[in-house]
Amino acid sequence: MAGLAAANHLIKNGVDDFKILEARKRIGGRIVAIPLKNHVVELGANWIHGVLGNPIFEIAMANGLVNIINTPKPHKVIAATEDGKQVPFAILHEIYEAYVCFLRRCEEYFLCQYLPPPDVHSVGEHINLEVAIYLERLPSSEEKKLRRLIFECLLKRETCISGCHSMDEIDLLELGSYAELQGGNIMLPSGYSSILEPMTKKIAPDKILTGYSVIKINWNNGNQHRNSDDGEESDDSDETVIEDITKSSSSYKSINPCEGISSNEPHKQKKKHSNCVEITCENGEIFYANHVICTMPLGILKEEASKLFEPALPNYKMESIDRLLFGTVDKIYLEYERPFLNPDITEIMLLWDSPPNKDDLENTWFRKIYSFSKVTETLLLGWISGKEAEYMETLSNEQVSITCTKILRQFLHDPFVPEPQKCVCTSWRKQKYTRGSYTAIAVGASQSDIEALAQPLYKSVHDKKPVLLFAGEHTHSNFYSTVHGAYLSGRTAAQHILASDQPQEVVLDCPDTTDLSSWIQGIHLEG
Ligand SMILES: Cc1cc2nc3c(=O)[nH]c(=O)nc-3n(C[C@H](O)[C@H](O)[C@H](O)COP(=O)(O)OP(=O)(O)OC[C@H]3O[C@@H](n4cnc5c(N)ncnc54)[C@H](O)[C@@H]3O)c2cc1C
């Protein structure tokens, strides 16, 4: 999304000398859908988080992708224990309210700068402290246990929202740095992936090169080649660098974000393009560009950054990459031939007696699945996070399907729960071009690590424009982990490149959406 957003922003501002290098054979990254037998399911993003001020919502509205007269079905959740007993709704409601209150209190540390209790550093620790106090006042151990299981279930759910293994990993002081947009969560009737059509319609097909995996970004090319080609001593004086840049500007267009000239004969091109960023792809092709926007996910940066960039990224960036978390969150889709669940129920929360055992994931991984929710009457969706999700990624869909059927039979106390006709599990951690699901702020990290990642890099302090820029959800300090965060970061990066060339008014919105934010407030919308 970040790459497409950058491309659209450049096009809107009259710049089209760029290329998008995409490693996969498809575009969309973490926005992707696949067909099952009777459904098309989204493997990545599913919800537009918030309406007001959400550019993705605006694009969806402007392109007729939102069904505003759709009346949402009421959400009826049941919670069941391992012996198949259902928890009274009043208890579920009571604990949910308390939990939301505990979570809001965690968020306040960021917003109000309170000091946390001593030795409490994570959201998990803080919530568990509040849970302990809450349960203490209850007289019977049965009452305590049931409520504790609901809290544990909600914490597992929170790991899927935050993108981590355990809420003990999430920094308490930073939870509130994520900004929620008003308006609830919106689902597009034709699926989140339908947003890719309006995002690509203005980009000429030859601008997007799929199957181009970038393996090297040499962003200080001019200095190195000058030194090595001329056999000179290293000369980092600003004057020489500025001279190189001037030459570059006269032989290329000044805005050229993802590509200059590609070549299979790098030795011939090197001299000519010595001031450009040199981008090498796995297929042997080399590109030269005045500017590069790197939108590779944080998971890739964690694994590859030390080899990918030449010269190495500054230490402050490498340390931020290290500190931030890129957890694993996976989905499990179960598609059935016929409906079998009570039509009034939309979600079954699973209150496991004990948590998964990290030393015995083979026999306990599934205890991390906190619920199955209905997507349609014949499609269920389960979520799983962290080490257990990574373990699940080693199993076949058939193995997961068998386990899920056992779980449903047990918790619904119904041996006739059918086997699904199809089971599909995502494998975001295993994906070579993602290596996880989304960004979270780990204990010890902070919003400033995200800001450090977003910082563009210049060849010299005298340069007006950066050569290497970063975008992607992991670079948005308030909307990290979301599609709209990725979108806005891509637009910001493109804007950096445009900035000093275009002091005149810059076109920010797509033409069809100009006044949308203001009139949308008058429409009643529910997720
Ligand atoms: C299971 C799941 C559910 C989610 N649900 C939601 C949701 O409901 N709402 C929401 O807002 N967000 C959701 N998200 C998050 C959202 O999908 C991402 O935040 C967003 O799509 C990220 O966009 P991006 O451009 O930063 O990265 P990506 O979409 O990952 O794009 C990065 C691109 O870089 C490419 N790439 C990687 N390495 C290379 C390389 N070496 N060379 C060339 N190309 C490379 C990748 O193939 C990819 O296309 C979800 C994510 C997951 C995994």
Describe, in plain words, how this protein is organized in 3D.
It is found in: Cytoplasm. Its cofactor is FAD. Helix content is 36%, strand content 15%. The protein is an alpha+beta fold and 527 residues long. Mean pLDDT is 87; it is low at 224-269, 502-506 and 510-527. Helix 4 packs antiparallel against helix 5 (141-162). The strands form seven sheets. A six-stranded mixed sheet has the order 5-16-17-18-15-19, sandwiched between helices. It has a domain at 2-25 and 195-324 and 436-519: FAD/NAD(P)-binding domain, CATH 3.50.50. The chain starts with a helix and ends in a 7-residue tail after the last helix. A hairpin with a 2-residue loop joins strand 17 and strand 18 (379-385).
Q: In one word, what is the shape?
A: globular
Low-confidence residue ranges: 224-269, 502-506, 510-527
Rg of Cα set: 25 Å
Q: How many β-strands, per DSSP?
A: 21
User: β content, as a range?
Assistant: 15-25%
| Mean residue pLDDT | 87
In CATH terms, the superfamily of the domain at 2-25 and 195-324 and 436-519 is FAD/NAD(P)-binding domain
Q: Ligands bound here?
A: flavin-adenine dinucleotide
Sheet/helix structural class: alpha+beta
Distance between the termini: 22 Å
- CATH top level class name of the domain at 2-25 and 195-324 and 436-519: Alpha Beta
Could you give the order of strands across the largest sheet?
5-16-17-18-15-19
- Give me the CATH fold name of the domain at 2-25 and 195-324 and 436-519: FAD/NAD(P)-binding domain
GO molecular function, one term: polyamine oxidase activity
Domain Amine oxidase: 1-234, 261-498
Organism: Eumeta variegata
Keywords: Cytoplasm, FAD, Flavoprotein, Oxidoreductase
